[in-house]
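If your schedule permits, I should be very grateful for your opinion on a structural question. Kindly check, if you would, that the fold set down in the tokens agrees with what the sequence suggests. Thank you for your consideration; the sequence and its tokens are set out here:
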Amino acid sequence: MELRDLLVFGLSFVFIILWCRRCFVSGGNARKLPPGPPGWPLVGNLFQIMLQGRHFIFSIRDLRPKYGPIFTMQMGQRTLVIVTSPELIHEALIQKGTIFASRPPDSPIRLVFSVGKCAVNSAEYGPLWRTLRRNFVTELISPVRVKQCSWIRDWALENHMKRLQNEASEKGFVDVMDICRFTVCSILVYICFGAKIPDEWIKDIDSVTKDVMLITMPHLPDFLPILTPLFRKQMKRAKELRKTQMECMVPLIRKRRAFVEKRESPNEEMVSPVGAAYVDSLFSLQAPGRGHLGEEELVTVCSELFVAGIDTTTSVLQWIFYELVVNQDIQEKLYKEVVDCAGKDGFITEEQVDKMKYLHAIVKETLRVHSPAHFTLSHAATEETELGGYKIPTDVYVEFYLEWMTEDPSMWKDPSVFRPERFLDGDGVDVDVTGTKGVLKMLPFGAGRRTCPGLSLGLLHVNLMLARMVQAFKWVPVPSFPPDPAEAFAFTVVMKNPLKAALLGR
């Protein structure tokens, strides 16, 4: 214990010297950063936020009226510039997209899983990011690939409907989030590895994905690296989890590589032909600065598909069904559209879903009212620049707060009311969720060069699952589990109490 105290004292002394040097050299606020709340010596606003005992997002909501659309927070050794107005977000991500297209340094735990930022979302803006993203777009979300994988969605949704029926019969209700997670994960496993694997293996991939997302969320040492030695158990846990992740996915990668090298035909295990699975493209990919990807990098790039695709899709679906359960008139209007387009018992195709305007309006209104995230992933400037009249250095974390624009009464009529019709003939007509056209009014998936690359694929899964689930069943509340809109903040914004719904046959 004495040795540990001595270590902390020594590190603290070094930290104080470095901090003082930084203050004298920089002249305090000589860099002309945006103003912000005064902080404590050495730790800035970090402990002020922690002592409030509430999520960071609530502090941002309180600070915006006082400090305006752009302000600075000093969180330990991290300098955060918070950007909240649609005008400044548009200026940064669209007009100055190349300048704000990079990522800040990753924490030591994140680096364990990203293998030195070898991933589309975490890579710094440059050749590696361009190569990974170009391959992602070509091999996953191009029209050819989407059509090629339609049979996978049909197969998965057929099983999905059976699971819904079975669970409703056994329990009297279904856990919407849980059952949708499994289906989305199974679709992504097939798309990624082209393999049919046991349900338990799919659940293992989903489980390790959830654990990775939780352990890579910000922790105290990320803001005060001096405390890292006191959190050795956390790093040990991260390395153990990485080992579990490797053990879960490497066998799939090796089996698929052998299948590709032998140029075999699809069989009971490898159901997609050579070249049709996402991982096939990664075997021959030449990554700038890395060459051919090893198994560590392959696991990281494949895992990114699950991290980005499972939680966001299933969170949006859960919020949609919450609104349908509490607003039966909206559900009935959607059911009528589905029946008019595909018939009461007809097979719903992806082409038919594209034509369901009210369905798309419901999805957009859900993204507006229940955005999957209140912030984009952290950005960093590739060179010193200006935003809103203030200097933005390359060493700060630029955080874009998205929720303000969806709650702004000057942009939306009755913003707290869930009304899908606004996207058909109201203030939501022609709103572009990617932020590339017109005035920014909502950005559920970010904007610019670092917008979510899987946006179109995720929305396809949401739309198709929604249409088929409403066609087959009427969704109603469970008296013993009343719908509760309280939020919980994980990797995405989810329901604190997962939605339970009863199903009535149509």
